[in-house]
Amino acid sequence: MRYLRRIPIHVIIVIGAISMVLPFVWMLSTSFKSPQATFIPPNFFELRPTWIPDEVILTNYVEAWREVPFPRYFMNTLFMAACIVLGVLMTSALAAYAFAKFDFPGRETIFIFFLSMMIVPQAVYLVPSFIILSKLGWVDTYMALIVPWLAQIFSIFLLRQQFRTIPDDYYDAALIDGCSRLGFLWRVLVPLSKPTLITIGLFALLGSWNSFIWPLIMTNSDKLRPIQVGLSYFAQEQGTEYGLMMAAATFCITPVIIIYFIAQKQVIESYAKSGIKG
Amino acid sequence: MDEGKRPHLSAERVSKKPGNLRKFLYAMAYIAPAAIIIIVFRVVPIIAAFGVSFFYVMMGKIVGFSGFAQYGMLLSDSEFWLSLLNTTYFVIATVPLSLFLSLIIAVLLNQKIRALGFYRTIYFLPVVTSLVAVAIVWKWIYHPRLGLLNSFMGSLGLDHMMWLEEPQGVFSMLAASVGIAWPKWLGGPSLALVAIIITNLWRGIGYNIIIFLAGLQNIPAEYYEAAKIDGAGRVQTFWKITWPLISPTTFYVVIMTTIVSFQVFTLVYLMTGSPVGGPLGTTKVLVYYIFEKGFESGGDMGYASCVALVLFIIVLSLTLFQRKVIEKRVHYS
């Protein structure tokens, strides 16, 4: 009886979950179809050939991978993401440390000033950022893709919150015992703050892998394109080659999806915690 | 370490000997790497955006001082008002729908469901997927002849629709389907815009579910047990216990969804066109209008900044409003 009462709950949850997954399944199934097969109007409730093509082909993946320099886009994105993740971890740790543990005039004011910058929509600073980057001669270089993202206010904020939970007594004791200030950050704060550092690293990684507007505006040569910009141009050029488009979309999201499935607990908890605190 | 150093260091901290300037400079050494980047690529551009909005700019070059004239031009710029209207449609549809759907799913998932982790993973999946891939896949789903959605509609006995190519307002379409005459100005968002709203809901709902789940798990189980003993039904329990106790989270979700929705760009940019914002400008949104003015047509960055600052004022007032309300709530919690 109790079980029967719960059936409607399950039905809603399952229908919801199916609608979350179907677009991915549709993407995959199209990516294995020949051009002719994609031109047959689908029938939603028929497994074949709508969901499982009569003839499963892999050529879409091979062609999409070769037709435009996707390997290059992947390397660009990996390079960009690696620099940004490392950079953000370093700049945030240093700044958060000073904001959490040092005592200096203007500490709160400066911190709140930086925080307030987060409210400003990207659309406001996009145009002037472009001008600044072009004055620096950085437009269409890796510098434009990487340097502006090496510091992220939200990461400093998260890490400062975390550092503040570690008692000041530790800090005083460590300094008295002759630990240097930098040594305290490295030997005490960092090891005690691993979950937050992982959160920050994940956000930086997902952010740079999925970044689109910034690289779209700040670069124009094919050589520098990160994955998302490459994918968008590729899709625009394909016209009606839906199989190719879906194959490209599939391999562009696969790395992130793999990371997500491996670290799904950390990813979800990172979003949940930062949401409530932010 | 060197024993001799101990008393010296502790004495220094206790007496706070080092002067303020020295302390400041010392801290700056740690803050500088982040601060320089934030100042050069955030603070300066934001100030510059204010500044440049008072100048006429052509092809990226300042050609004259405008003062508030460009802000005045906004008032009579029909494209600006159209983008503002479309953005408003987008926000007004997205916020309640996202709230409703994510709260229902979160509440249901919170009922000691088996495989909660599995469902949570599934619902969150679109959030980590890039918007570019989402746009490409959904554009294919909306394809008028070959798309999955029309096939689904057809199976249910509904008419095929043009989705992203349909400029008609959805209210007009509804009214027409039941044969009522409907005023054109009340047509509502175009079906194309509604299609983008649906995609955006699909992409973002998982985030709100996670936030709600975290909020729900903070409600003490005793409350629910007490309600059960008192014989409260499921609906009553929701309205009497869950809804009031979850309200800070609800408020956060509403404000954040609103702020983010006002800034919609990528989906419109990739799913509509050409020209982007079509059909008939019914999906043109504020951020796209800024992009178009500032980068695409003639580099009119002064005017683009004016529009951007209007967007900023909207977002800022919502944030300040949130602060006010939260401050009031802190008192009760």
Structure description:
The complex is a heterodimer of chains A (278) and B (333). With 278 residues, chain A is mostly helical. Chain A folds into two domains: 2-57, no CATH class; 67-277, MetI-like fold, CATH 1.10.3720.10. Chain A has helices at 2-5, 7-31, 35-38, 47-51, 59-67, 70-101, 107-116, 122-135, 142-146, 153-164, 168-176, 181-192, 194-210, 213-218, 227-238, 242-262, 264-277. With 333 residues, chain B is mainly alpha-helical. Chain B folds into two domains: 5-52, no CATH class; 75-330, MetI-like (MetI-like fold). In chain B, strand 1 and strand 2 (61-65) form a beta hairpin. Mean pLDDT of chain B is 88; it is low at 1-15. Chains A and B meet through helix 2, helix 6, helix 7, helix 8 and helix 11 of A and helix 1, helix 2, helix 4, helix 5 and helix 6 of B.
List keywords for this structure.
heterodimer, A: 278 residues, mainly alpha, MetI-like fold, 2 domains, 17 helices, 0% strand, B: 333 residues, two-stranded antiparallel ribbon, 3% strand, disordered N terminus
